[in-house]
Specification:
This protein is an alpha/beta fold. It folds into three domains: about 250 residues, Rossmann fold, CATH 3.40.50.620; about 70 residues, Glutamyl-tRNA Synthetase, domain 2 (Orthogonal Bundle), CATH 1.10.1160; about 200 residues, Ribosomal Protein L25, Chain P (Beta Barrel), CATH 2.40.240. Helix content is about 25%, strand content about 25%. It contains twelve helices and 27 strands. The chain has a seven-stranded mixed β-sheet, with helices on one face. Helix 2 links the parallel strand 1 and strand 2. The two termini are about 30 Å apart. Bound molecules: adenosine-5'-triphosphate and magnesium ion. The site of adenosine-5'-triphosphate has 15 residues, from helix 2 and strand 8. Belongs to the class-I aminoacyl-tRNA synthetase family. It catalyses: tRNA(Gln) + L-glutamine + ATP = L-glutaminyl-tRNA(Gln) + AMP + diphosphate. It comes from Claveliimonas monacensis. Keywords: Aminoacyl-tRNA synthetase, ATP-binding, Cytoplasm, Ligase, Nucleotide-binding, Protein biosynthesis.
């Protein structure tokens, strides 16, 4: 038997090694969002990576809200994040945690450090602390409060907890090494005084732990084995390990860093998205032009397509940007076989088939997806008056234009050959109606081989087509200029990022369509029922992606 060759990413290789060497006998990962905004495509990578690893190794996956910073958190974000994680399919089951549930443990850890002579209360002002810290090239200076006795530190820390000091008056610092080449190790602050109400613990606390102290404790308490985070935390790892060691947690979680996912010409920063929302440039955090998970879902992306995308991006240690076109490639690939192919006319003009009897209607049997029989068939009404796309008719066609023009014959998709015989115009010369005749011999599926035509166009029956609003999207960012304005740091917005077409017609086959359902509209792309604005009798569709792509699969 040949051995299966599976290429593993560097994190999997590290996990394999840890399991082999007996460092851990299981795998437990977590996704630790701060509930201060909506999740975006970058977070999706982290979620799917952590969940995927837990699954692959038969381990556990935790969702933990990192709500140690009472100022910024918001319950609305907690709910949206839970919904996004579930939608992506990362099941956390009963493993939902809040860092604020560990405030007591964190306090005990701090007391333990004080007792070991590894932490002290410092009275320097924030500005002085900064000055004493030194720089990348110069070592820091010891705080004059560094050598307080254990008893004095215990008493002061308790007084901090009891609300005897104002914000910023005192901090608790780890006693490590003010001369360390790693600035994070120069007696970092681990607790601060902040008289703020916390959404979970209310007014119980007026001291709050700093991220670098809280995070390793959260991981350790939950018995996380591999704490996977992004590269900016690489320099914090020695401190992470110090906290776990000095607080005497066993087994110790292990931090592993990977490169953040960046998409070219896309806004992911919470600060910028907030501004776009507040200024009404986009219609909320789930505006389909954004790449928050809620926005991607509303636009019509599927969890499967995002998973495919994240897998294609891979996991690495080097920073790079991925082209948005790759995400589009993934959604096309995902929907291609799964979704029905319908007809919709986005810029209608009328086509009248002069020799088709007035008032008559026939039903054509049409496959929902020619490449996937399982999607079944539907019946499509065909009649004398239809709508076709305005651009599928020209009075004076250029060379190689094979669609309708006077005297030319085309195939109406799923129906008959029609030949253009004349057209009508309004006073300004705009075409209003195209006239044609059909040949009953040429019915689709009849096996007609008499002659060939070069063009096939789509259509909808005029009397029973359903009117719909269609929203066409372009990148929110002006791609020529890049995301940020060089002069003032503002966003370079594309004024044409949203085009609303209110006068579209879709074939009468959408009776059962519900929010988030998606379809291919032949020749026009993939579309999705807008979850916010669509009504059964006033359909609104978002274009997820067009059919054509400039994206080439990397080898
Ligand atoms: P942002 O800076 O975009 O607002 P954040 O890092 O502040 O995001 P957190 O809630 O702190 O958001 O992040 C939760 C987790 O998601 C962290 O483990 C973080 O490393 C990870 N993460 C955030 N952005 C990305 C990204 N672009 N690619 C991969 N992982 C990311
Ligand atoms: Mg953050």
């Amino acid at each position: 038997m040949g051995e299966e060759v599976v290429s593993k990413n560097f994190i999997e290789q590290e996990i394999d090694k840890d399991l082999r060497e007996g460092v851990y006998d299981n795998v437990c990962t977590r996704f630790p969002p701060e509930p201060n905004g909506y999740l975006h495509i970058g977070h999706a990578k982290s979620i799917l990576l952590n969940y995927g690893l837990a699954k692959k190794y038969g381990g556990k996956f935790h969702l933990r809200f990192d709500d140690t910073n009472p100022m910024k958190e918001d319950m609305e974000f907690v709910e949206s994040i839970k919904a996004d994680v579930q939608w992506l399919g990362a099941e956390y089951g009963e493993h939902l945690y809040f860092a604020s549930d560990y405030f007591d443990i964190m306090y005990e850890c701090a007391v333990k450090l004080i007792k070991k002579g590894k932490a002290y209360v410092c009275d320097l002002s924030p500005e002085e602390i900064r000055q004493y810290r030194g720089t990348l090239t110069e070592p820091g200076k010891n705080s004059p409060y560094r050598d307080r006795s254990v008893e004095e530190n215990l008493a002061l820390f308790e007084a901090m907890k009891n609300g005897e000091y104002k914000d910023g008056e005192k901090v608790l610092r780890a006693k490590i090494d003010m001369a360390s080449p790693n600035i994070n190790m120069r007696d970092p602050i681990i607790y601060r005084v902040a008289h703020m109400t916390h959404h979970n613990t209310g007014d119980k606390w007026c001291i709050y732990p700093m991220y670098d102290f809280a995070h390793p404790i959260e991981d350790a308490v939950e018995k996380i084995t591999h704490s996977i985070c992004t590269l900016e935390f690489e320099d914090h790892r020695p401190l992470y390990d110090w906290v776990v060691r000095e607080c005497e947690f066993d087994p110790a979680p292990r931090q592993i860093e990977f490169a953040k996912l960046y998409l070219t010409n896309v806004v992911t920063g919470k600060r910028y998205i907030k501004k776009l929302v507040q200024e009404g440039i986009v219609d909320g955090w789930d505006d389909p032009r954004l790449v928050s998970i809620a926005a991607l879902r509303r636009r019509g992306f599927t969890p499967e397509s995002i998973k495919m995308f994240v897998e294609m991006c891979g996991v690495s240690k080097s920073q790079s940007s991925v082209d948005y076109a790759m995400l589009e490639y993934c959604i096309r690939e995902d929907l291609k076989m799964k979704r029905p192919r319908m007809m919709a006319v986005l810029d209608p003009i009328k086509l009248v088939i002069d020799n088709y009897p007035e008032g008559e209607r026939e039903y054509l049997d049409v496959a929902n997806n020619l490449e996937n029989e399982e999607l079944g068939m539907r019946q499509l009404p065909f009649e004398r008056e239809l709508y076709i796309e305005r651009e599928d008719f020209m009075i004076e066609p250029p060379k190689k234009y094979f669609r309708l023009f006077p005297g030319n014959e085309v195939r109406l998709m799923h129906a008959y050959f029609v030949k253009c015989v004349s057209y009508e115009t309004d006073e300004e010369g705009n075409v209003t109606v195209v006239h044609a005749t059909y040949d009953p011999e040429t019915k689709a599926g009849s096996g007609f081989t008499g002659r060939k035509v070069k063009g096939t166009i789509h259509w909808v029956p005029a009397s029973c087509a359903q009117k719909a609003e269609v929203r066409l999207y372009e990148n929110l960012i002006d791609e020529e200029k890049g995301v940020y304005n060089k002069e003032d740091g503002s966003l370079n917005l594309n004024p044409h990022s949203l085009e609303i077409r209110k006068n579209c017609y879709v074939e009468p086959s959408f009776q059962d369509a519900k929010a988030y359902d998606s379809f291919q509209f032949v020749r026009n792309g993939y579309f999705c029922i807008d979850a916010r604005d669509s009504e059964p009798d006033a359909l609104v569709f978002n274009r997820i992606v067009s059919l054509k792509s400039s994206f080439k699969l990397p080898k």
